[in-house]
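The aim of this short unit is practical: by the end, you should be able to scan a pair of folded records and say something sensible about each. We start with the first protein, listed as its amino acid sequence and then its structure tokens.
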Amino acid sequence: MNVTAQAPRASDKRASSVRAGACLVILGSALAGCMTSKVDETRQMASAVQPNESIVILTKPQLEGVGTEGDFLSCVQEGLGGELVHPQDGQSSKRSKGEVSPFKIYGEQQFTDAMFPWFEPSTAPANAAGLKGLLEHPGVTERLAQIGVRYVVWLDGNTRRTGGGGSVSCAIGPGVGGCFGVGWWDKSSDYVATVWDLQTATELGTVTTDVTGTSVLIGAIAPIPIITPVQSTACNRLSEQLRSFLVGSDLVGAPPAAATGGGGG
């Protein structure tokens, strides 16, 4: 995803001020009122991941700029509800009790190590055409079959601060002290997940999410932060839609996304 930074316009500053005011009004209620979110899906191939198949989630290589955060990748891994083949410390799959894993999720580092050097940042294919050429190299398809990974999900995008305003001042004097004022900052989480089928060298489609929100810091004797969970909301929205895409919930005659039996993660 290519992101172009632009100087904030007067209308953007007014919109930030309005959102900041709204956050103040809903101080005692849900923070969701400080956010807007959008999720889109585009499917190019009618294909679905089967419970016995494995996927791997990789961050798109970035030659310039900021790449996708490692904690966001870990969050998506957990949110998909698949069986984590190489879970990190403290990492667990988010599934309902009694829900069967819809597929397996291979570890990112383990995959790049097993497929060295074909998925290193400098050599990884940039598109489906490059993937087709990669699969023609001797030993690549055999290695993929050995580790059992069929689908790659490329994650691109990041969370960034887009604006802000106001100020909070704190002072301490003899027998008195406190903070006064209001400050706010805007953040935007924009991510795209692109799914490739390594067996057929095709791109199945993409899932994108765009979440924006305003957080507020209120100076009322002690600083009171109202943090809007922009990135975690983007992870939840993307994971939910991506899971539906992978299991083919939108395909005619597709099996249900969740079955019962077995233990949850």
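Turning to the second protein, read its sequence before its tokens, just as you did above.
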Amino acid sequence: MTNPTPDGGDGRERVQPEVLEPVADAGGGPPAPAVEGEQVTRPTKMIRIASMVRTMLEEVRRAPLDDAGRRRLREIHELSVRELEEVLSPDLRQELSDVVLPFSDEAPSESELRLAQAQLVGWLEGLFHGIQATLFTQQAMAQQQLEQMPHRGAPPGIAGPEPGPSGYL
């Protein structure tokens, strides 16, 4: 996950990893529509947790759990949510806490666990789709900026194309 940051004086944007923010449009106008403040500071950690949560959901669907297994899965689920909160911006953290509700029992039923896991997986997939959409928008805007550059002319100090051979010796 990358986002452009102000240039270093040479007119080119610098790329700063792991934070998603809006990008100014090609005409130098305001940033493209994006949700301000939504950031993931450690995307690789988020992806690892999401993969683990998805795998746990598949396991819960395949085999029945005893009381100890349900307690353990609850602990893992709660730990996963806490770990995710560490890598999310305050806006996303609030959204996650609004979506993921605490369990009411020490050993929730299998259906409660399945629903909680599916809910968390669904939220994470939505987050991934949002990140992909932001990256696509940024890439399209950067492409548009590149396409407009030849129309603006060469920057000062850069010569045009070399003249081709002439018919004279």
